[in-house]
Amino acid sequence: MTGAVMRQKLRPQVSRRGNRARHGLSLAAAVVVTAMTAAACGGSGAPVTGTAASSPAAAASTPATGAGFYRYPSPGTLAKARNGQVLASQPMRVTEPLRLASSRALRIMYRSQGLRGQPVAVTGFLLIPRGHPPRRGWPVIAWSHGTAGVGPNCAPSRSPSLYLPGAYEYQRLITRLLSNGFAVVGTDYPGLGFPGQLHPYVQPGPEGRSVVDSVLAARHLIPQLGRRWFSVGHSQGGQSALAAGEIAQRAQGLQFLGTVSFAPASHVALIWDSIARVRPPLRGVDFVLAAYAAYVAVSARLYDPGLRYTDVLSPQLAGQIPAAKRLCLLDLAMHLATVHPPLTSILNPSGASSPRLRRFFAQTEPATRRSAGPILLLQGGRDDQIPPRATGRLKAELCRLGDVVQYRTYASANHDTLLAQAYPGTVHWLRDRLSGIPASQTC
């Protein structure tokens, strides 16, 4: 199925079923449309034309996906390593805009802690700005990406654009951050990257730890990086960025200056309830909802092995779990749109009240303790992925914890255009924190 055909299938449904979608879908349906369209038209991001490798020979030996890099370390190696300790690194090929904005691009592997606190290896990427570092070193942005999938091939560090093929919103944001003098380290999150593993999706514990530990790893690798750092993320990553801010003291000896959270995932139970209202025939955006539900079910079972997929999903969708474990967001949505017999339902009607599922939802909430720094919370008024009312509710919860929160809304922004519309104000906020100006709040 071509990108143009899938675009025709999806766009009308966003319009006709917008009310349902606006009740909360914390993954990038709009990115799916954009990615399919870009793939059909040749894309708006440049192809891979450069590398940060120091020689032609090194460049030639570094494939775009870095497939040979993703070999999981031995249990003994992990047991002896410290959180944030670098386990491996290699030059990484990136797209032309990223190459031109960076002096080095590295694929990294480091030690963190998984779902139950066990030692795990995590992969990610690190990009360094061009030019001479400031006197106090390059300030660091710990970047948290939005929904990509739960399988190993969905790791952003496997992609030259640092996200799903054909989707360039994150590439543009990271390019601008580099050009404004920030080093950017991005975690893949535990479970993404390594063959045979699964990602505990929308689980703030392991995600937040992997964000903080990525900063420690980056500073071990690049001595020109400074002690000052921020946590920044979008959608699923907005949730992860908030979680990282709550445990920023994990990075001892560093100076955490705050969190920027673009349209963060929160109140996942509301999203699940909206999916329960989908009725056949399924079409367009419903297949993205189905992909989201499958990822959540995989993660919920990682959290609680006693949960059965058929407890929460329809038998048809539960039968597609092997595909959900393998395919990334774009490919899974297209796969579910073309299965035979056609998918006619997403959830088990009685599964929404499952105590096991509700316990899982409760631990996905990002506002659990006071953040170690101020928070810039950003939301688009036309977001049909993360409902503004959910982010407004999250803001109130953060304020009750005693956080210093500045909440900004952009009336004309959707889930993805928020990144560009909010960027000028975001970089101003970041620079104010670097200058020592106290953050204002809207609590």
CATH class of the largest domain: Alpha Beta
Order of helices and strands: HHHEHHEEHEEEHEHEHEHHHHHHHEHEH
Q: Helix count, per DSSP? A: 18
What are the low-pLDDT stretches, counting only 5+ consecutive residues below 50?
1-63
Secondary-structure content class: alpha/beta
Fraction of residues in H or I helices: 25-40%
What fold name stands as the CATH topology of the largest domain?
Answer: Rossmann fold
Fold and architecture overview:
It is a single chain. This protein has 443 residues and is an alpha/beta fold. It is built from 18 helices and eleven strands. The chain has helices at 3-16, 18-21, 29-41, 56-60, 75-80, 96-101, 169-179, 204-221, 236-246, 268-275, 286-303, 309-312, 315-318, 321-326, 329-338, 355-362, 388-400, 417-434, and strands at residues 48-51, 86-91, 93-95, 102-113, 119-129, 138-144, 183-187, 225-234, 255-262, 375-380, 405-410. Helix 1 packs antiparallel against helix 3 and helix 8 crosses helix 9. The longest helix is centred in the middle third of the chain and has 18 residues, at 204-221. It is globular.
